[in-house]
Amino acid sequence: xxxxxxxxxxxxxxxxxxxxxxxxxxxxxxxxxxxxxxxxxxxxxxxxxxxxxxxxxxxxxxxxxxxxxxxxxxxxxxxxxxxxxxxxxxxxxxxxxxxxxxxxxxxxxxxxxxxxxxxxxxxxxxxxxxxxxxxxxxxxxxxxxxxxxxxxxxxxxxxxxxxxxxxxxxxxxxxxxxxxxxxxxxxxxxxxxxxxxxxxxxxxxxxxxxxxxxxxxxxxxxxxxxxxxxxxxxxxxxxxxxxxxxxxxx
Length: 250
Known about the structure:
- The protein is an alpha/beta fold.
- Helices cover 51% and strands 14% of the residues.
- The protein has helices at 11-22, 34-42, 58-68, 93-121, 142-164, 183-187, 198-210, 220-229, 234-248, and strands spanning 2-6, 26-31, 48-52, 75-78, 125-129, 170-174, 179-180, 196-197, 215-216.
- It has a seven-stranded parallel beta sheet with strand order 3-2-1-4-5-6-9, with helices on both faces.
- Helix 4 (93-121) links the parallel strand 4 (75-78) and strand 5.
């Protein structure tokens, strides 16, 4: 078995790599930081191929597919992504466009290209890393929330398409709440609520994806929050989310 993981140099992607190695998956690891990928390679006993690429550049996304399409990949994990805290009228436009390129375009392209191959062969799995933010609007983390809404709904629709054609291809989307990773350092904020441990989330996500679970939501509290948010008026929901985001910048 073989897995391709983007954003594999840290956080959930790194911990997914280690967990899949323990399940005897060979790995193709993709991220910008080559030395981080080499560290993983040196610490596992499976075959590991390292591909240092910046997937914010669309050309590199297509390059990655061409480099790996004949590798016999069984599991694609689209994990690469980042966020940016701040009021939308103040945040850096170029950073937001880079976020859209990585969080949406790169994921979309890789999902679509590998999905076509998987459907043709009637086998394969795709795990897209979304967020509990994918069910909400997020003042002060606006673009990030919007990108994760795209990821969640995109994956859900593919799931139904595959179900309709009775395909043996499976798609899942991971929707965690706060996770103890480098996300906040990159985004420019910090969590004031308890965060899940990355290793725990990675294991939970892989285990559920291998059982063909569509929505993978770690943590009872996050599950309940997503469920009850359905019944809140949009304006009240946004007020609550604003207060949560506002505390991250203090």
